[in-house]
Amino acid sequence: MQKQASQGSTAGSVSDAAPEDDATGGSIRFPPRGQPVITGINRTGLFALYMKEVRRFLKVQTQTIWAPAVTTLLFLVIFTVALGRGGREVLGVPFASFVAPGLIVMGMMQNAFANSSFSLLSGKIQGTIIDLLMPPLSPGELMSGIVLAAVTRAIAVGCAVALAMVLWPDVSLAIEHGWAIIWFGLMGSAMLALLGLGTSIWAEKFDHNAAITNFIIAPLSLLSGTFYVLDNLAPTFQAVSRANPFFYVISGFRYGFLGESDIGSASDVMMAAIGIGVFNMLIAVAVYFVLRSGWKLKS
């Protein structure tokens, strides 16, 4: 009896390890534990995450889209009244037309950062970060969904700001180079969305996020040639401004409307466009590896 029981136990253990038979007589092989079943891109999950992030800022669109448009329009009104009197021209156009493109893309970048920097940070503080980490999404898919939603908000803010500025006298948004508007607008928004996601991973409370916004993002945005050309600066400060990636985004975006830029010639603008693309790729790789490591997310 003991021998039969031993044989039965052995047979049972072998049977548990063997694949099961399906209705057609074939065997069903299950993947090892921990091995993902979804192959390729989880499009359903990526779209669900994207829509979740988009609906989050659309539910409070008065604050996330229209309020930035009003704030940016106030910048235009103040600087136009203060500096644009007497028919002052910059780069051959009225001052209002010069400053308007820079304000549009500045609003886009700041709101892209605000959107992505809130995503993971709010989950960590509220204890709901597991809702983003548990679904079958790879680090690349998680990063893509958050960044794409932030870029979507940036585009919405840019359109709202442009609509508000068209109503202001002496502002012309005639398009000279459409590719520059699209490229620099998207690259600037993606750059700040990636930086915002990195900040969201690093920050442990909203004060950390506010510190990055107030002491890094805002100064780089305002001191990037939005309200002036580099020729008005001393050589030392010109060199500092040219080391600021925000300068190339704002000046390149302005080039798309005015056909002129303090970056330089058309070939210089093209080189700046390539440089911004490479810079974004480097940031994306860095953020991806940090996100994949689970640093400050899974501990």
From TrEMBL:
Annotated protein name in UniProt: Transport permease protein
Lineage: Bacteria, Pseudomonadati, Pseudomonadota, Alphaproteobacteria, Sphingomonadales
Entry keyword Heme: no
Keywords noted in UniProt: Cell membrane, Membrane, Transmembrane, Transmembrane helix, Transport
Region feature Disordered, mapped onto this chain: 1-31
Domain ABC transmembrane type-2: 59-294
Family: Belongs to the ABC-2 integral membrane protein family.
Pfam family, one: ABC2_membrane
Origin superkingdom: Bacteria
Protein localization: Cell inner membrane; Membrane
InterPro entries in the cross-refs: ABC-2_transport_permease, ABC2_TM, ABC2_TM_bact-type
Bias-annotated ranges (Polar residues): 1-13
Membrane topology term: Multi-pass membrane protein
Ranges annotated as spanning the membrane: 65-83, 95-121, 142-168, 180-203, 210-230, 269-291
